[in-house]
């Protein structure tokens, strides 16, 4: 790292100048999202002292009980983003339908999607959680904005990232030119560039999956994990380690930092549901970040970023991380 600290603002301005990749409106959007993440980070840090822990006694559209912090984070992101003129609408894992920017504010050309607080089950036990976000452009050709405008494949994203609230608060971002990481300097109140051009090693000896679901998996996933578990005696000829934080955002962050494979596959308990994780708020932004870092992301059969969403809250099976491992488990899904 150079001696001089590079703030998120400076990084974005320099990217904008260098290749025009970040139009002014998008830069504003990303700065506003980062500011919202700072506020969420402060709420998370306060914990019990801020009265923010525990359940809110409400359910989201997916029938999951919402935590107070899920709702707080959702409100912070909406309030921060609705007035700047850069957005047409937002969609969130915690809201039934899209939130159109109110008429009293100018309408922008971007659409913002987010999982305001990923890893909700970890909130009350002081384990790292985070915000995941994805940015799309509103399709042209019609006035106003509707839910169908959001139903774009992940390959159409113009920015994606996440912010982790852990021992450090870190923001990880791509605008299609590699992956950069920023760490929140709490004294200065600004995000400082701490890693650029993050690369996921193609091979790994670490997998991340909820092993308690093993008996429900499909054969290809069972085979892949069985072979990892067989260690030096098995076909892989090496020992594997396992990590499962149960916050996708943090499990994927570990993979971006040191490699590994993360999987949340389809399972037999709910045969008609394609998976647990959400395509538009979790899988798409994480898949783009992983691909931008030289990794791979599939649903076992197809590239996640090529999937055409049929609805806003669509779910998907997810396998992502070190390229050679994701390639392998995807190959195991091929019909003979
Ligand atoms: P959330 O968005 O409600 O927090 O749910 C998604 C989370 C992911 O972060 C994580 O990978 C998974 O659910 C954990 O699932 P499990 O409870 O099976 O460990
Ligand atoms: Mg989530």
UniProtKB/TrEMBL annotation:
Residues 200-333 form the Fructose-1-6-bisphosphatase class 1 C-terminal domain. GO terms for molecular function: fructose 1,6-bisphosphate 1-phosphatase activity; magnesium ion binding. Its EC number is 3.1.3.11. It catalyses: beta-D-fructose 1,6-bisphosphate + H2O = beta-D-fructose 6-phosphate + phosphate. Keywords: Carbohydrate metabolism, Cytoplasm, Hydrolase, Magnesium, Metal-binding. Mg(2+) 1 binds at residues 93, 115, 117. Mg(2+) 2 binds at residues 115, 118, 282. It is found in: Cytoplasm. Binds 2 magnesium ions per subunit. It is an enzyme of class 3 (hydrolase). Its cofactor is Mg(2+). Gene3D superfamilies: 3.40.190.80, Fructose-1,6-Bisphosphatase, subunit A, domain 1. GO terms for cellular component: cytosol. InterPro entries: FBPase_C_dom, FBPase_class-1, FBPase_N, FBPtase. CDD domains: FBPase. Pathway: Carbohydrate biosynthesis. Residues 7-196 form the Fructose-1-6-bisphosphatase class I N-terminal domain. Belongs to the FBPase class 1 family. Homotetramer. This is Fructose-1,6-bisphosphatase class 1. It comes from Variovorax guangxiensis.
């Amino acid at each position: 790292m150079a001696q001089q600290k590079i703030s998120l603002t400076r990084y974005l301005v320099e990217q904008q100048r260098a290749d025009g990749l970040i139009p002014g409106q998008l830069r504003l959007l990303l700065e506003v999202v980062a500011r919202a993440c700072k506020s969420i980070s402060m709420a998370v840090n306060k914990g019990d002292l801020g009265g923010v822990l525990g359940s809110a006694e409400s359910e989201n559209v997916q029938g999951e009980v919402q935590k107070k912090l899920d709702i707080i984070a959702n409100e912070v992101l909406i309030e921060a983003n609705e007035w700047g003129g850069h957005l047409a609408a937002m969609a969130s894992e915690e809201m039934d339908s899209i939130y159109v920017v109110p008429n009293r504010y100018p309408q922008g050309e971007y659409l913002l999607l987010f999982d305001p607080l990923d890893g909700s089950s970890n909130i009350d036990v002081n384990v790292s959680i985070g915000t995941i976000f994805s940015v799309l452009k509103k399709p042209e050709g019609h006035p106003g904005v509707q839910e169908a405008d959001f139903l774009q494949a992940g390959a159409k994203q113009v920015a994606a990232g996440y912010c982790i609230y852990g021992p450090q608060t870190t923001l990880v971002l791509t605008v299609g030119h590699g992956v950069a990481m920023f760490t929140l300097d709490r004294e200065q109140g600004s995000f400082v560039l701490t890693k650029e051009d993050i690369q996921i090693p193609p091979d790994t000896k670490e997998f991340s999956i909820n092993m308690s679901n093993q008996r429900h998996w499909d054969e290809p996933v069972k085979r892949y994990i069985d072979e990892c578990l067989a260690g030096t005696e098995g076909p892989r000829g090496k020992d594997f380690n396992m990590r499962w934080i149960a916050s996708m955002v943090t499990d994927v962050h570990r993979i971006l930092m040191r490699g590994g494979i993360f999987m949340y596959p389809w399972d037999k308990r709910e045969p008609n549901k394609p998976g647990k994780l959400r395509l538009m708020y979790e899988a798409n932004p994480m898949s783009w970040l992983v691909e931008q870092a030289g990794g791979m992301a599939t649903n076992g059969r197809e590239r996640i970023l090529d999937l055409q969403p049929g609805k806003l809250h669509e779910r998907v099976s997810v396998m992502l991380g070190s390229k050679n491992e994701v390639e392998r488990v995807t190959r195991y899904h091929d019909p003979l």
